Amino acid sequence: MRREKQGKNPVPAGYCLNEVAKAYERHLPIIPVVLVDLEDDLPPSVKDIPSRDFRPAIPVRDHEDIYPACFAELVQAIREEPRSSIPEPQIPHIEESGQQKEQRQETEKKFIIFLSYGRDEYTDNALRIKEDLESRGHLVIFDPDMVIGSPGFEQYVEDGLQKCNRVVLLMTPGSVSRKNRRDRGSPEGYCLTHIAKALEKSKEIIPVLLVELIDGVPTSICRIQYLDLMTVIPIDKYSDRYLPLFDRLADAIEQKQLNFKGGQAKLIKKLRLLDFRADVGQHIARFTGRKWIFDEIDRWMAEKPDSRVFWLLGGPGIGKSAVAAWLCNYHRDVIAFHLCIHGHTDKSDPRRAVLSIVYQITQHLPLYDAKIQGMDLETETEKDAYTLFDNFLVQPFTSGVIRPEGDKLVIIDAIDEATKDGKNEIARFIRDHWKKTPP
What we know:
Elements: H1 17-25, E1 33-34, E2 52-53, H2 67-80, H3 98-107, E3 112-116, H4 123-135, E4 139-141, H5 153-163, E5 166-171, H6 173-176, H7 192-200, E6 204-209, E7 227-228, H8 239-255, H9 262-270, H10 277-284, H11 291-303, H12 320-330, E8 334-339, H13 350-362, H14 366-373, H15 377-380, H16 385-394, E9 409-413, H17 425-433
Parallel strand pairs: 1-2, 3-4, 3-5, 5-6, 6-7, 8-9
């Protein structure tokens, strides 16, 4: 809550002053909680609001006899706080630093946003998000009145994705579920084609999770952090809780702050995730044909359960990478993808390949995610490739607790590109160690 001070030793403004201003703007109750002695009085904007004094209970671990009473008092205040008790705001003027000015100017930009949604029972939530984006001055491309397959529909989508600055992808089963190839009647997500075209055009994709996805996020975009709105759906029922999350979405759009914290962000940082969006994008949108390859892969999975590796061989330029890109966007059993690139130190490194694959699997298997989150990643991620493989991809499955539904695919493309000085560590790695993975 510290206010910015100028002079010989300038002091930056407290982080939460902007949150106070936003709370006043939305007429939300504010309950100040004092944790430590403040150098200044409380800011004018909150000094007239009764505060809760937690100082005797800090740090909590040393005052567990006092803390429960303080917390109970806070809970009671939350339950009883009337909105009418909020005083008129007296927001202090804060001089902008150069960085703050740049951020404000970026925020004031208006964007063309392609809103991709599933045309399903969650459409009302999509409409609310559309209206809130428009209220910030953005142009939202949205197609509720266009009939799928009607004249001009495909061109409408193509033009929208070409013109937009951002793609906001609302993830539901109706939008991003991948077809179960063992069940020919299973549906395919309406937005998978939008993802493919957006990747092809190198558009900024901002995924937003509305409901749980049984099969996880499409592998083609699972490296992108997503905003989790599951706890505020339906939005009209949880509007107060939705608004702060919408502010995060606005920051992601307007300031490219695609950092939503939580477990996903922790893994991205610790596992040093590799980005293959540009590589997938150049192949995926205009891919066609080759059905026989996919049928052969499905046959292999169904009829050869003891076989762990399917090698797809062919000369340069015949489309192996295009097949891999299509699989990672549309095949529901693909849970990880790695692309080797000749001369690229990271993408040809077995250690980085293992860590990248581990992250992607966490986005598809919740129990596996919980297991990895509980490991000492600081220490584990520094070990050699073979130890990483055993600790992350073999041992977590040995207890039988983590058991995927059906076989799952991990795709490693262009293995030949990882050859260095006549040796190919990734190929040898697959030959010698992939058989250790669980059946």
